[in-house]
Amino acid sequence: MYQNEYEVVFITSAELGEDQYNAVLAKVTDTIAKYEGTVLVQESWGRRKFAYPIRKQKYGMYTLVDFVGPSTLPKELTRLSRLDDKFMRLVTVKIEDRVDAAVAKEAAEKRSTQRLERLNSNS
């Protein structure tokens, strides 16, 4: 079955405890599963400084989730982020139309490896 491939990056408060952060991540992944999507790659980019304060905070926890799913899923993730004040920002980008999940997983893992190498070299 063909679905669209997306990446969602969300920012949560750096003040959240590990349990609260895991609960937010679980909400995202559970929503993807509920809408018959599949998580391909999940990356935690850690605590990073903002270019400008958001909600009077200077730091946030960045997370990326690469997934395949129906076209209604990004709207639901946006709705979820607006209902939960633990989300500071959330942006979803469509990577590709009509992909096979198995093929998309290989491509997502390759992009993830390259992205993490770049992130680690900049630290």
What's the quick description here?
The chain is α+β, with helices and mostly antiparallel strands and 123 residues long. The chain is built from 3 helices and 4 strands, in the order βαββαβα.
Identify the notable features of this structure and list them briefly.
123 residues; 4-stranded antiparallel β-sheet; alpha+beta
Q: How would you characterize the overall build of this protein?
A:
The chain is of the alpha+beta class and 123 residues long. It has 3 helices and 4 strands. The chain has helices at 18-34, 73-83, 101-122, and strands at 2-13, 38-54, 57-69, 87-100. The chain has a 4-stranded antiparallel sheet with strand order 2-3-1-4, sandwiched between helices. β2 (38-54) and β3 (57-69) form a beta hairpin. The termini are far apart. The model has no long low-confidence stretch (mean pLDDT 91).
Secondary structure: number of strands: 4
Low-confidence stretches: none
What is the average per-residue confidence, as pLDDT, rounded to a whole number?
A: 91
Radius of gyration: 15 Å
The shape is globular
Largest sheet: 4 strands, antiparallel
Number of helices: 3
Strand order of the largest sheet: 2-3-1-4
- Strand % is over 45%
* Distance separating the two termini: 40 Å
Report helical residue fraction.
40-55%
Structural category: alpha+beta
